[in-house]
Amino acid sequence: MPLSFPVTVLLNAASGGAGPDEATIQTRFLAAGIEAEIVVLQSGQDPGDAARLALDRAQIVVAAGGDGTVSGVAGALAGTSRVLGVLPVGTLNHFAKDLKIPLDLEGAVATIAGGRVASVDVGQVHDRVFVNNASIGVYPSIVETREELRRAGHGKWPAMLLAMVRMLRSYRGVLVRMTVDGKEAQWRTPFVFVGNNAYTVEGLRLGSRRAVDGGRLFAYLAPRIHAYQLPLLAIRALLGLSAVSEDFEIVSAADLRVDAPHHRDIALALDGELTRMTTPLDFRTWAGALRVLVPPV
Fold it and tell me: Count of alpha carbons within 13 Å of 217, Cβ hemisphere only?
């Protein structure tokens, strides 16, 4: 890809705490031979809105932030000829890790300058795109409780820990009805986790994906587990103790419907960002819809 293509970097300065500033990113791109436009997102600004504004002037739109920033920008670029670059300066950076994009600024910029483009899948729920996963159940409830505690004056991490203790102790699960290929099943489960392609559920690669271009969604439920048992399940999965996959119901499909009969609308974590949506939730895969700059093979 010619480096003369216009590049716009959307920098979410709030992602991950103390990340690189505008001048540092600009200097690194210039060192790689790229004159990039740097746009600093304002507090509360939607990365997707900023990306849509950039489509008319940039062939490459770079998301500089965490998974939420990447997801918002990807939602604007999916299905277009524009290409996503990633500067993973957030906290977890799952999407970058699964695509083997370097987590250091120099390596990530070098990946963008290298110009290798891959087409990857995204998931959709209603009109929202996600690059990693979407979930309902205990995790969104923990996030909602955390935000209530923060508004009451607790710090970010103490609020998160207290919210986890409260919800894992008291959460009774959510009744869900899932429809795939015209067939319906019903469970009560602590969570429904819908991944954009398959996630590893055991061993040291727990929570990662081997590929993001398989054209499938994978839904994970744990109807035989109570919420308070989830920390132990996570430890067993990480250490590879026993067949953890037997604790899950795993459904693979190109599209699926998840209904929660007792909820007209429900909290949903979408690539780590909390939102609410009307049920039923209609999920589908959008195979190969997103063009992304990735490292050389």
Answer: 27
Distance CA 236, CA 168 (A): 17
Give the span between the Cα atoms of 4 and 35, in whole angstroms.
8
CA dist 249 to 48, 82, 93, Å? 33, 37, 27
Q: What is the pTM of this model?
A: 0.91
Superfamily of domain 7-115: Probable inorganic polyphosphate/atp-NAD kinase; domain 1 (3.40.50.10330)
Beta bridge partners of 129: 124
CATH number for the domain formed by residue range(s) 130-283:
2.60.200.40
CA distances from 211 to 17, 28, 60, 217 (A): 29, 29, 23, 12
Question: Quick one: what percent of the chain has pLDDT higher than 70?
Answer: 95
Letter for the amino acid at 96?
A
Residue pLDDT, tens place only, 78-109: 999 999 999 999 888 999 999 999 999 999 99
Please give the radius of gyration of the chain, using alpha carbons only, rounded to the nearest integer.
20
CA angle centred on 132, ends 250 and 48, rounded to 5° = 145
